[in-house]
Amino acid sequence: MRASITTRRSWVAIAAVILTLAACSRADNGDGLTDMQREDQAASASRTGLFNFARAQISQGTNETSEPRAINGIAPQVDEISEPFILM
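-> structure tokens emitted (88 positions)
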């Protein structure tokens, strides 16, 4: 009887871990956007976001397996008090 309860608890624990990992590893956040689109939105939202995006790209540049990334989706904010950005 004791072994049966221990086995059942083990299976429940394993199932809980599997469900937790499955929920955490979901790439889709429910907004229908890709990771690149989310990064573009974050970089377009503020100068800090753009700076953090650039910093992340520089750090990935040292990774020999990384590919170049298009920046077409990034539109930095432009208003009366900020300097304009020109992305090439």
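Residues 33-62 form one domain.
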